[in-house]
Write a structure and sequence with these properties.
- Helices cover 38% and strands 20% of the residues.
- The longest helix is centred in the N-terminal third of the chain and has 32 residues.
- With 332 residues, it is of the alpha+beta class.
- α2 packs antiparallel against α4.
- It has 2 domains: 77 residues; 220 residues, Bira Bifunctional Protein, Domain 2 (BirA Bifunctional Protein, domain 2, 2-Layer Sandwich).
- Bound molecules: adenosine-5'-[phenylalaninyl-phosphate] (FA5).
C-alpha cells in the first residue's frame, strides 16, 4: 500500500480517523478531530505534503488514494456533525451543571382530605361509607324526602335541572340527602352510613357559598334511636375534628325530611358558622321507603366539608377551594 515519507499509510490513517470520529460526540471533540485529521497541519495534509518525495508512479497511486480519503473523511465528518446536532438538546435548554431538582408530586385536594377525615371519624363510630349519583332523579332529591312538587321548601334548593329529551325529572343533586332514600330502599335496618359527594345549586357565590360544593350525609336508623343519639354522635364528631374545647351550638331549623330539625354551628373567632343541618328522620320518609315508622326511628345530618375545613384551617373564603390556585392548594 502507498506509504509516504512520513511512514503513515493511507489505510492506517483511514482506520484511525474513522475510529476516532465514531467516539467524538461534543462539538469540541468533533473540532479536535477535524484539526487532527483534516486541519492545515493535520495528519492527512502531512501525508499529501509528503507525496512530493515519492517517484512519479508511487506519487500517482498514493496521491489518488490520499485525495480519495480526504473526500471520504470530509463526508463522514459532515454526517457525524449532523448526527450530533440532531441528538443534542437545543443550545441552552439543558444546563448540565445545575443541581438536580426534586420532581413535584401531586397531592389530594383539600376537600378530599377533609372528606376523608370526616368519613374516617364516622367510620370509627360504626358508619359505613357509600357513594351515590351526582345526576339524580327528582323523586329522590325531593319527593321521597317529603318535598312534593309545589312545596315551598323546593325554593330553598335552587336546582340545576338536566335538560333531557327523554325525561324532565333529572337534576344535579342539590344535596346528598337523596341517598337516604336510596339506601333505605335497598337495605333493612339497622342502617348506619355516611355519604360524601358533590352537590350543585343554582345560586350566586359569596365567602361561604359556592354553586358546587361537597356534602357528607349521615343516616342512622334502628329501633330506639333518639335525639340524644344524634347530639351525642355530632358532639363526638366535633370533638374529633375541632378538639374538645371548641364551642358548638345547636339551633332549631326546618327541613321537610326531619322532625324535629336542627342546625349545628361552630364558633369561629366569636362568630357562629353553620356547618350542618340535621334531625330525626321524618316518619313520612321512613314510610315512603317501606320502613315501619312505629318500630324504627333514626337521625340524619348533612354537612359541608369545605365549611369544616375553613373553620379548621382559618380560610376566609370558600371560593379558594375551586379556584385551582396552587398557592392555596399546596398549603394542605
Ligand atoms: C341540606 O342540604 C340538608 N340536606 C341537610 C340535612 C341532611 C338536614 C339531613 C337534615 C337531615 P343545607 O342546605 O343547610 O341543608 O346544607 C347543609 C350544609 O351544606 C350547610 O350547613 C353547609 O355546610 C353546606 N352548604 C350548603 N350550601 C352550601 C353552599 N352553597 N356552599 C358551600 N357549602 C354549602
Amino acid at each position: 500500500m502507498a506509504e509516504t515519507q512520513t511512514g503513515e499509510s493511507v489505510v492506517g490513517l483511514k482506520d484511525d480517523a474513522v475510529a476516532a470520529l465514531l467516539v467524538a460526540e461534543s462539538s469540541e471533540q468533533l473540532e479536535a478531530w477535524r484539526v487532527e485529521f483534516l486541519g492545515r497541519k493535520g495528519r492527512l495534509t502531512t501525508v499529501l505534503r509528503g507525496l512530493g518525495s515519492l517517484d512519479i508512479e508511487q506519487r500517482k497511486v498514493a496521491g489518488a488514494a490520499a485525495n480519495h480519503l480526504r473526500v471520504e473523511l470530509e463526508t463522514l465528518f459532515e454526517e457525524r456533525q449532523q448526527q450530533a446536532i440532531s441528538t443534542r438538546a437545543p443550545a441552552g435548554s439543558i444546563d448540565v451543571t445545575l443541581p438536580g431538582r426534586k420532581s413535584s408530586l401531586g397531592g389530594l385536594h383539600p376537600s378530599t382530605q377533609m372528606i376523608r377525615e370526616i368519613t374516617q371519624a364516622f367510620n370509627e363510630m360504626g358508619f359505613q361509607t357509600i357513594e351515590g349519583p351526582e345526576i339524580e332523579l327528582e323523586r329522590y332529591n325531593f319527593d321521597l324526602l317529603n318535598i312534593p312538587a309545589g312545596h315551598p321548601a323546593r325554593d330553598k334548593w335552587d336546582t340545576i335541572w338536566v335538560d333531557s329529551e327523554s325525561r324532565g325529572d333529572m337534576l344535579l343533586r342539590t344535596h346528598t340527602s337523596p341517598m337516604q332514600a336510596r339506601v333505605m330502599e335497598t337495605s333493612d335496618p339497622p342502617v348506619r352510613v355516611v355519604v360524601p359527594g358533590k352537590c350543585y345549586r343554582y345560586e350566586s357565590t359569596d365567602a361561604t357559598h359556592e354553586w358546587h360544593f361537597n356534602q357528607v350525609e349521615g343516616l342512622a336508623v334502628d329501633e330506639g334511636i333518639t335525639f340524644a343519639d344524634l347530639k351525642g354522635t355530632l358532639y363526638e364528631f366535633a370533638r374529633r375534628i375541632f378538639g374538645a374545647s371548641r364551642k358548638v351550638r345547636f339551633r332549631c331549623d326546618y327541613f321537610p325530611f326531619v322532625e324535629p330539625g336542627v342546625d349545628m354551628s361552630i364558633d369561629w373567632n366569636g362568630n357562629w358558622i353553620e356547618i350542618l343541618g340535621a334531625g330525626m328522620v321524618h316518619p313520612k320518609v321512613l314510610e315512603g321507603v317501606g320502613y315501619d315508622s312505629s318500630k324504627y326511628t333514626g337521625f340524619a345530618f348533612g354537612m359541608g366539608p369545605e365549611r369544616v375545613s375553613m373553620l379548621r384551617n382559618d380560610i376566609n373564603d370558600i371560593r379558594h377551594f375551586f379556584a385551582n390556585d396552587l398557592r392555596f392548594l399546596t398549603q394542605f
